[in-house]
Each structure stands twice: as C-alpha cells, then as structure tokens.
Amino acid sequence: MIDNWLKDAWLKGKYYFGLLLAGGIAIRLVRAEQCQDWSTAQASLVIILSLLTLMVWAWWKENRPARQLSVEATTYDRATDRVLLCVAIGFGALILNANRKDHWVHGGVARAIGYGALVAGAFFIGGVLLGYLFGLRPAGSTQDQQNTAVPPHTNLEEIADWLTKLFLGAGLVELTRMKEPVKQLAVFMAHGVDAPHHTDPGSPAIAFAIMSFFSASGLLYGYLWTRYQHALKEAAPPSAPNSVPTDAHQSNPG
Hints:
Distance between the termini: 60 Å
Number of strands: 0
Helix content: over 70%
Structural class: mainly alpha
Low-confidence stretches: 139-152, 246-251
Largest sheet: none
Shape: flat
Number of domains: 2
Order of helices and strands: HHHHHHHH
Radius of gyration: 26 Å
Strand content: under 5%
Number of helices: 8
C-alpha cells in the first residue's frame, strides 16, 4: 500500500514539476518578448512546447489500458499510432514555422499558431470523415456476419459505398479543373497561416503543405481506425442465445 502511494505521489509530482518548469520558462518568454530578445523567445517557446508534449506522451503511455487484441486488430492499432505520431510531427513543424523571427517582430506568433491549428484540425477531421467512409465495407462483404457480437450497419455501409463511388467518380472527372480552386484556397489560407503581418500575403506553398498533409493524415487515420473497429467486432465472441431459466428444485407434480 505504501509502495503504491509513493508511486502515485512520484507520478503526480513529476507532472507538477514539469508544469512548474514550463511556467517558469513562460515568464522568461514574456520578459524576452518585452526586451525584444527574439532568440530567447523562440528557444523558450520550443522548450515549453517540448515539455508539454513529453508530459502528454508520458501520461498517455502510463494510462493506456492493455488489451488482448487479434493479429488484425493489433496491426491496425499500431498503424493508427504511427499515423498519430506523423500528425504530431506535422504539428511540430507548424509551430516551428510560426516561431520564425519575423512573426515575433510583428507580433504574429499566436495568430499563426492558432490559425494554423484550426486549419490543420479542420482538414484533419475532414480527412477522417472520408477515411471512415472508405473504411466501411459494403453489406455482405464480411465473412460469417452471423457470428459477430454486433450486427453490421447495413444502411450506413450502403450509404458509405455509394458516397465513396460518387466522390471517386466526381473527383476523377473534375481532377483537371481543381488546380485553380486549390490555388485560390491556398492563397486565402496563407493570410492567416503564414503571414507575419496583416499586409503580408504569406506563403501559399506553406498553407497548401499544411492542408494537404493533415487532410491526407486524417484520411489514412479514419480508414485505419474504421478497419480497427471492424477487426474488434470480428474478434468479439459470439453472443450466447437467449435461454429460459428453469427451477431445478421445482418438484414434479405427482
């Protein structure tokens, strides 16, 4: 009991120490910005975000429940973890781009991070929705459906199959006409994602890189997560048939 208490106290103290350290560095960041010491401000922001990332990762590793998964589910589970790691790396690159000196000089660091995070999150969620549609199998394609614990969502799978064919067909037909709309969207997004000053148009290339990276990551994650959930349902034990309870001690009528 004492060992468990010491372990819990150590874990909580570790997180508290990290938060206090990040808070102290944040005070140094504010002073560096007031003194226009941009190099110190850039380094302080990187250290703060690195500490918070390490604490979130440590907490996730310690509190992630261990599960007995099938081979297929384990494969998809590991693949989704790799995709999330790539998303974290992409978000780190987004923050490093916002941490440029010209953003600090014009006071646009917070705007670049906030706007960039919103754009990245929006395209990631959009990609997840498409990946979810692509990951759903049409009704009747799964094997031994009567042995699964949860019955298939027939209507949802049929709609997903229809939407998938519609998106692919329309996308292939309109692919040659997408260059100009995508360029205009990148130019529009660059004003908030990359512009250090409100009069600067920003870099459409950086905005396009953010949109394409997070939308592709979301598409892959949505597909892998859908297949992972499907693998869990297939590996679930079949439900026992309903049985009528009988009274074993009931006396037979004479």
